[in-house]
Every structure is written in C-alpha cells, then in structure tokens.
UniProtKB/TrEMBL annotation:
Sites where the protein binds ATP: 84-91
Record flagged with keyword Lyase: no
Residues covered by the Kinesin motor domain: 5-332
Coiled-coil positions: 348-382, 442-516
The entry's keywords: ATP-binding, Coiled coil, Microtubule, Motor protein, Nucleotide-binding
Species, as recorded: Acrasis kona
InterPro entries: Kinesin-like_fam, Kinesin_motor_CS, Kinesin_motor_dom, Kinesin_motor_dom_sf, P-loop_NTPase
Protein name: Kinesin-like protein
Amino acid sequence: MEDDNIQVCIRFRPINERETKSLTNCRSWRVINNTITSTNNEQQYTFDHVFQPCSKTTDVYNIMAEKISCGVVDGYNGTIFAYGQTSSGKTYTMKGCLDEQGIVTMSIHDVFKRIAEYPNREFCVRASYIEIYNENIVDLLQEAKQLETLKIHEDVQRGVYVGNLKEQVTQRPEDAVQLMEQGERLRHFGGTNMNEKSSRSHTIFRLCIESREMIECKNEEPQYGPIRVSTLNLVDLAGSERVSHTLAEGVRLQEGAHINKSLLTLGTVISKLAEGRNGVHIPYRDSKLTRILQTALGGNSRTAIICNVTPAPVHFDETHSTLKFANRAKNITNDAHINEILNDQVIITKMKKENDIWKDKCMELEKKLEQVSNESNNIAAIRKMRDEHGFEMLNQERLLRTQFEQEVIKVQNELSMRYETHLERMHVDLQEVYKKIKEEVKKEFDESLVNIIQEKENAKIEIAELEARILELEAREQKNLLDNDPEQQFLLHQKIEELERENRMLNIKYSRRRANMSNNQVG
Ligand SMILES: Nc1ncnc2c1ncn2[C@@H]1O[C@H](COP(=O)(O)OP(=O)(O)OP(=O)(O)O)[C@@H](O)[C@H]1O
C-alpha cells in the first residue's frame, strides 16, 4: 500500500496572437525554477514541477504520467487529468495535435509496452470513452445511442461505475488509439470567443486492465494466481470560462454554466480533501464528474493533475485561480494499492502455495532450531570451560599471592638480620676505634707526663740553682751591706727581686702544666 500525495504540475502554454493584442492588464507571472511569482510580487506558489511554454508534452508525460500508466498494468488504479481555464491547453496536453502526441496516446502505448514485459500473465484490456455534457453521461463509443444518457451505479465489488457502458476489448495500442479518435469525433466541441474548438464537455477515456498470472500447468490444466483489475482514467476537462471573455450566449452559455458548476464542485471536493479533516463530508455526489472520479480523489488511485495556464496578462485572474486550485490539490493524499480478486480456485491454489511456503519455512526453522540447540550446547561447554578456567585462575592467583607474601616476609627478615649484624659489626668496629683512640691518648698522655716530670725535674734543678744563687746573692748582700755601698746594695736588691719574679713565674708555669695534665687524664 502507498501513501501518495496527488501529483500536481503547472504547464504554461505559449501566449497566442489574440492575447498579445489585448494588453488590458499589465500584471503577469514569472517562473524561476519551480516557483511562480506574480510580477507585482503579491502572489507566489511553488510546485514540484512547472513546465514552461517551450516544454514538450513528452516532458510532461515522462515526469507526471509514465509511472501512473505503467503502474496500472501492475494492478494500481491511475488517473491523469488536465485542468485549467478554457483555451489553456488541456486538450492539447491530453489529446495532442498533428505535431505532437498527447498524453492519452502515450499512455496507451506504454500500457501495451508494459504488458509485453509480463509473458507469464494473461491480460485483457478494455477501453471505454464517456463524456459528461451538461451533466449527462454520454457513451462516445456507441454512435447509435448518442442521445441516451447513462446512469452511475455503485456496488461493493465494482465500486462506482457507469451502467450500460460499452467496453471494447483491445489487443493492440493502435486499436485503443483508434477508439479514442473515434469517440473524439462524437465529442461536443463548439467555437467561443476564446477557443475556436472549445471542449464543451468533460471526457474520460478509460482503460480497464484485468490480468492473472499462470502459476503452473498440471495435467495440461493451467493454474492461475489472483486476478488483478485496475483502471486508468485519462481525463480532459472542459475549461472554466468567464462569459465576459467567451461572450457565450444561448447553447454555449448553458454549456458554460454546467461546466462551471461541475468544476466548482471539483474545486470544493479538492478543498475539503486538502484540509485533511477526518469525518468531513466530501460532496462527491454533487456532480457526475466528481462522482465518477471519486476513487481518484483521495481514494485508491495514483493521481496526477496537470494544471494548464496561460501567461497572458489578460488572463491573470484565471491563471491565479488555477494556481490556487493546484496549490490545494497538491496536499491531497491518496491511498493506492494493488487490486486483486480471489476466486475459489485461486484461493485454493494460493493456499496450497502458501502451505508449501510455510512447510519450507517450517523445515528451515527446524534446521535453524537444530543449529541453535547445537550452538547452545557449544555455548554451555564454553561456559563450563570458562568457569573451570576461572576457578583455576583464582586458585593460581591465591597461590601466587601467598608465595609473594611469604617471599616478602623472608626478604624482610633477612634484611633485618643483615641490619643487626651490620650494627653489631659497627659496634665492634667502634669499640676498637675507641680503644685505639684511648690507647693513643694514653700514650700521648704518658709521653706528656714523662716530659712534664722531666720538665718538673729540670725546673726543680733550676729552682735549686736559683735558690743557690739567691743564697749566694744574699750572702753577697750581707757582705755588701757590710761594705755600706748603697749603690751596690740597690743593684743587688734589684737582682734579688728579679730572681724572685722568675722563681714565681716558674712556679706558676709548673702548676698550670700540672693542672692540664690532670684534666687530660680525667677525659
Ligand atoms: N503547449 C502548447 N503549445 C502550443 N500550442 C498550444 C499549447 N497548448 C495549447 N495550445 C494551443 O492553444 C489552443 C487552445 O488549446 P486547447 O484547445 O488545448 O485548450 P483547452 O484548455 O482544451 O480549451 P477548452 O477548455 O476551451 O477546450 C489550441 O489552439 C492549442 O493548439
């Protein structure tokens, strides 16, 4: 199922002689890429595709219609229609002219080309052609019944359909094109002030395509798949017209009123659908056109609307009105899906086929299940291995940790033992050093003591000598005193004092030395 917006494009036709002459209104349109802006910049519209006056119908077909035409062969309903004011180029686009094929002919050829791509399908193509003229449905393929108007019916199986409509089976594209041309001759045309050959009716050329696939051939009896039924509506609308422009009167005026009324209903249907509100009443039944095209508008169909406009300033308002219509229509969402009909035979065949498919799937699943259970066994084994391995790893880790801790304690003990030995050794060494120093100091002390004793002895000798001399001098003094020589006495007295000083100094020196030595001995 698809969720497709209605495809909308704008096609500008070249300006014609009549329009060139009547420059009554200076406002016009300019196109840049796919945006159309009024020359006074007041209006602007953007579309997926805007075709300029120089574009060919083939360009329009390739972009807007090809997918829809081919899709019909695949079972999708399709509708392509041309919309626009009178003389804007709708019939030119849909039916073509001597120089250029129209979209109807191109679609017919593509449908048959596509059919040829499915050799395993049986196809039946039926063509019909109707016009809605003054709100009457006319069968354009039944010349004799020209005046008979057809009725619209609706049932569950067929949906909305036109009763008593001639549907011509066609096997070649040329036949279908010929039917279209044949019907075209019966269509209501009329000259107006705006178009010498103005379509006075809406036309719908329809191809109905049924197909079924040949699945297999058992006992020379072919088995078929479901039947696909789809329709392609190729619609050429009559153009909206202003009496002031067409100058219509009498029959033309009455036709114009019907045309405008049904186009107004189409506009209302488009507006309501574009609003997208759920449950809103859509007035399909207000005109034959919208009733017949109900599926194409918001229903089960791929739909494209080609909006034809003229760039002529004189038709500025009509072009603007078409652009507004197009702008609303592009918001409508359709819901296209392949249409398949299942009869008993088809249902049984389909179910058998589905059954076979399911059987295959079941077998495939069983195989997968087996694979999965094998894999799950493998996984369990791997898990077990992983667990065992994990346990082993844990033990290993514990062992290593204990070994490490023991090693650490061993190293610590050894270090502390070494440290103590080293301390002891250092202690012994220190004691030895101490002993040596002590011995050396003692030796030094003893030597000093010997020296001091020696010095003491020497000093004693010196003192004795000095005392002896003092005695001698005293004796001399006694003698001198006796001689009464005062000068001699003075000199002698001085000498005695000097000797006594020396004696005192020696005593002091000696006592200091002794004090030092006794200190050293204590240390
Ligand atoms: N793209 C185009 N290139 C050249 N000429 C064109 C083009 N489109 C339209 N014309 C010419 O413009 C004129 C009007 O075109 P046409 O009849 O297709 O308009 P219309 O919309 O079908 O009008 P009506 O609604 O009145 O039937 C015709 O002469 C047609 O050949």
